[in-house]
Amino acid sequence: MKQTSLHSVHIAAGARMVEFGGWSMPVQYGPILEEAQRVRTTGGLFDLGHMGRFRFTGPDAVALIDRVATCFCGKIPIDSIRYGLLCREDGNPIDDVLVYRGADDVFMVVNAGNRDADMAWIRQHADGLDVTIEDQTDELAMLAVQGPKAAEVLQRVTEDLDLSTVGYYKSGFGTLCGLANTRFSRTGYTGEDGFEIYFPNAEGERVWNAIAEAGAADGITPIGLGARDTLRLEAGMPLYGHEIDAEHNPIEAGLNFGVSFHEDKGDWIGRTALAAVKENPQRKLVGLTTDGKRAPRQGYALMNGETQVGTICSGAVSPTLNTNIGTAYLPLDLAEVGRTFDMDIRGKRQACTVVELPFYSRKR
Predict the structure, then answer these.
(1) Which of 97-101, 271-275, 360-364 comes out lowest in average pLDDT?
(2) Residues 202, 207, 212, CA angle at the centre, nearest 5°?
(3) Which residue in 47, 87, 37 sits closest to 271, CA to CA?
(4) Average pLDDT over all residues of the chain
């Protein structure tokens, strides 16, 4: 398995390590629900070194992204970020991505397990374009600080950039722990305010420790992937392999905001198929809550009487809402809020109710 530059730090902190996307990653340092609550109330520090980082430069960098991604890169303002997907011709995604538009480049963050497939797909469709494609995953560390205290704590180790001027889904460059030209972004996959930072991999341990020390008095601690999954689910954010995959398209997943049919974007891979889905969707991703003892888990059947009408995509105990939550696709005529179904848990039934997504949205 691959290891991030912080692997020894996680081991020393007593983290429980698991394989995720081909990487050895910390799933938890302590109780997962307590870690999730900490991010909601104060903040947490995340190692995201497993995520893929690509950089595109050259005259046709934007044109390439507009060929392979669903978002409209050509319309992204400089220093802004957009969510998008890399789709096949059938409209189903290879991955979901974040696209950063810079003055001199385009930067893309992709999911860990899809990195190689994404890079191969992009290179395959770069024929005839004047663009340089770099996989910077192994040279750049990626950390995130998320939670109500994130900006305040990160500013203590940041110079040359006032983080309050970096808006949501915006990016900028500053000096982090003495490292000039560090890339900062303000997106977040937890539903909370927070930043992602990109800097040389060799500096990972030093920067991690400096941020941890800067935030210790405010209760900022390392957070594992288990809490991260719970937090993103509460916030209604998709996870590749769960809400979206090779069988589930972004339109029916409610990700229309990441799909541009603007005529100026021109043709792109999957456009025709997704336009047809937009005109005639067959199902909808919904939220579910259940007061029963068992939390929804991926793969549980969703039953309407004796008929299976769906399958759980993701599920967890929600520490923020103090209930069990999950997601599933339902036929459009069954997807109305308030409708009840049964989860089948190895032959036992537990009632659940359709609710609006997201489950949680922070006060801004």
Answers:
(1) 360-364
(2) 145
(3) 87
(4) 97
Would you give the end-to-end CA distance of the chain in angstroms? 40
pLDDT at 278: 98
Give the integer Cα–Cα distance in Å for 74 and 141: 27
**All CATH 3.30.70.1400 domain ranges in the chain, comma separated:** 53-135
What CA–CA distance (Å, rounded) separates 232 from 99? 19
* Dihedral pair phi/psi, residue 351, rounded to 5°: -70, 145
Q: How far is CA 323 from CA 43, 191, 270, 292, 296, in A?
A: 22, 18, 38, 9, 11
Indicate yes or no: pTM above 0.85. yes
> pLDDT-based confidence at 363, cuts 50/70/90?
confident
The whole-angstrom separation of Cα 95 and Cα 278 is: 19
Backbone angles phi, psi at 359, to 5 degrees: -75, -35
Phi, psi values for residue 143, rounded to 5°: -120, 160
Q: In the prediction, which pLDDT does 179 show?
A: 98
Using alpha carbons, select from 312, 310, 317 the residue that is nearest to residue 293. 317
Instruction: Give 53-135's CATH code, choosing from 2.60.40.1220, 2.30.30.30, 3.30.70.1400, 3.30.70.100.
Output: 3.30.70.1400
Residues 6 or more apart from 75 whose CB is under 8 A from it? 260, 262, 264, 265
127 contact partners, CB below 8 Å, separation of at least 6 = none
Quick count: other Cβ atoms within 10 Å of Cβ 323? 15
